[in-house]
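Changelog-adjacent note: as of this version, every example in the card shows the full chain rather than a window. The one below runs 319 residues end to end.
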Amino acid sequence: MIIHTRYILKAPHFTFTGEALTLAIWPLLYLISKKILNEKVNTYDVLHFLPFMLYTIYRFNDYSMSGNDKYNLLIDFYAQLDSGALSIRDFKLNFFFNDFVLYRLQPLIYIIILLRKIGNYLSTSEGQENGLSKKWLRILIYGFLILWVIKYLLFLLGYFVIPISIKNPVPILFIAGEVFLISQLALTNTEGIPKAYVKKKKDSKELYKIAKEAKDYIISQKVFLDPDLNLQSLSKSINTNSNYLSKAIHLSYKINFSDFINQFRIEYAKQLIQNKKYEMYTLEAIAKESGFKSISTFNRSFQKVEKMTPSNYKQLFNS
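Full-length structure tokens:
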């Protein structure tokens, strides 16, 4: 942007720095996204900045040029632009290769990784319960993906087909358009606003009623036996939305949705353990019969509620 508007002439010392910073932006966004998605940031994550550090060392001679030398270089560059003598096609093929591999491939790789991370998070029970605000992160990343596709289709078109001028403002207009659209979505769509700030609220009496309806439905239909039961499907079954149901469970039982459902599964598992008919069942089999997807989740949830392991509980009835 500062090159296109020529503000770089007021601070020529910053010439070339944008290239290295490009390599640092996506690793930084990756780490921020991990924190937003409640993932642990570990020591090895610093390796994401290795391309940035190596490229900075590689271009050190360019960075150490005097401000006057950089200014003269910029003046010559803009003179060629103004004369129409410089277009994307005029750049050498090795520049195109370096530009594409270093600065164009890296964003695409991170975009794919982040979209997968966000998708995986939203598919978990925690994501289904708290994921509305996180969806804005996915919208933002998709915006970058669209921008990446448009901008570099134009670049490829200008390099191989039509000699588009480098000072063509189309990519910058797309950036401005994306920022405008995301801002409008943020202002007009209340789904992305944290629940505490949404004007339309359910009062406590209604929330207690929703919690009771959910509990009655779970018990009567035994939907807790479905390992794929989630906040959205249950809220749809009792004709409410996931925000209200989540808030109702928190208000009524002081626990989250996952713990709420697991309580029913644990009670059912206890009945199976006490039943002689299931005496030969392994704890893993009982866990699956009760709606748990894994034995580890079963053990953890059981001990959290009963203050003892399933094995210890089973021994009480086998002794």
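Structural remarks: The chain has 16 helices and no strands.
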